[in-house]
Amino acid sequence: MNGTRTAEGRARTAVDHPHGSNTRYRNGCRCGPCRTAATEYARQVRQAKQGLPAGDPRHGTANGYDHWRCRCGPCNTAKHARRNPRQLMVAGDGDHRHGTHNGYSHHRCRCERCLSAGRAYSRAKYRRLHPVSGGAS
Fold first, then answer.
1. Among 87, 107, 83, 86, CA closest to 97
2. In the chain, at which end, N or C, are there fewer CB atoms within 10 A of the end residue's CB?
3. Digit-coded pLDDT (tens) for 94-113
4. pTM over 0.70
């Protein structure tokens, strides 16, 4: 069990970390100085994640976009390319995935043929799951 959850652990935290520290705040103290310290710490974390400095090797990566909040062109492109590589299905008429439920749902193609196939699949699935009783005459 985590030592800070017991009375002994809380006492040790109180001795090791005086009021006005972020650690004390994270361990449950909500006095004014501890709240101020936690606010300042959160502000510093936000400022550190306001983007990457020029020349940083993390530019052009999804990590730069997600974790460092960098919105430069290369980071933006990397983020959206990584999000779902199948999303950018560029296929001609000869592609076997066009006009299928698979093309619509897994490759996120929204051409007219795939859209039609996706709707047909959804209708068939609904009918399978919700059969109509044929007892009315």
1. 107
2. C
3. 666 778 888 888 777 778 88
4. no
- Within 13 Å of residue 12, how many CA atoms lie on the same side as its CB? 8
Q: Which amino acid is at 54?
A: A
Token digits of residue 110? 């929204």
Tens-place pLDDT, residues 10-39: 656 656 788 888 888 888 889 999 999 999
